[in-house]
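tokens incoming
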């Protein structure tokens, strides 16, 4: 364990070089990493570690996955281990939850749900809830055998927006949850803080490739990609726009303030869906 001095105080060099999700947690114990969640993850990604000739012990699995680190003669979890393999990471990182709020036309709250648990569970549970809020419309098309399915939002765009919120938010500060606001004409996905320096709003508006700036959460990205939840090579934003165009919706909008305190993705509802829904109500 290497230490350096910063302003006269000893600082762990690994904590300076690693992203927050890869740093050690001094508030947790190795027992806070749930073996059944680790094994479930390995089963989901089809890892050969579960098919070893002689079963691998839990702590050895943690080491092989680089989930723990040795500190002063004992091992402690890395932050990413608590975010994915603890049943309530909000205990260790305030704001690690998802709030989904559905609004009426007048702005009053119709329904509110809070999702807690490992990051991948929150993503999947919130997505399932969102997809159940708006039923698809099936219409018979003249002179065609196959009926037309009209959805309010493309599921792939909704998934990308939500996954990006978890991937690129901070788990260190300001302690705010991921927020999903469902309005009659749009869905907003909000995370905190805004993008890392080097990513300007013009990249989202012009469709230019994002610059290769360092990731805020490298290890979180690795796990989300293993679970096939995150896009590789920065293709998530173009995918959102492509899927929106495919169903005839306006393009998604992205915004954040000058001081980068938040990042918001706005998905406008499919106008055809809204029109048919209004005509049949």
């Amino acid at each position: 364990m290497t230490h350096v001095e910063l302003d006269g105080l000893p600082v762990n060099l690994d904590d300076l070089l690693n992203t927050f999700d890869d740093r050690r947690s001094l508030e947790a114990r190795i027992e806070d990493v749930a073996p059944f969640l680790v094994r479930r993850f390995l089963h989901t990604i089809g890892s050969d570690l579960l098919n070893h000739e002689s079963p691998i012990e839990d702590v050895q699995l943690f080491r092989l996955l680089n989930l723990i680190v040795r500190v002063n003669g004992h091992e402690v979890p890395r932050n990413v281990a608590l975010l994915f393999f603890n049943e309530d990471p909000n205990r260790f990182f305030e704001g690690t939850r998802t709030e989904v709020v559905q609004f009426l036309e007048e702005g009053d709250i119709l329904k509110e749900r809070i999702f807690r648990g490992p990051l991948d569970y929150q993503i999947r549970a919130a997505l399932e809830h969102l997809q159940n809020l708006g039923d698809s419309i099936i219409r018979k098309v003249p002179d065609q055998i196959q009926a037309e399915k009209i959805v309010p939002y493309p599921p792939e765009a909704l998934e990308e927006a939500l996954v990006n919120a978890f991937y690129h938010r901070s788990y260190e500060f300001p302690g705010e949850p991921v927020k999903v606001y469902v309005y009659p004409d749009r869905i907003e996905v909000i995370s905190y803080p805004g993008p890392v320096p080097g990513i300007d709003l013009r990249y989202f508006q012009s469709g230019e490739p994002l610059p290769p700036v360092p990731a805020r959460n490298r290890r979180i990205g690795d796990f989300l990609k293993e679970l096939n939840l995150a896009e590789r090579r920065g293709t998530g934003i173009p995918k959102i726009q492509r899927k929106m165009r495919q169903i005839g919706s306006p393009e998604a909008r992205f915004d954040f303030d000058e001081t980068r305190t938040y990042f918001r993705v706005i998905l406008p509802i499919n106008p055809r869906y809204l029109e048919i829904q209004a005509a049949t109500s």
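note: The longest strand covers residues 109-115.
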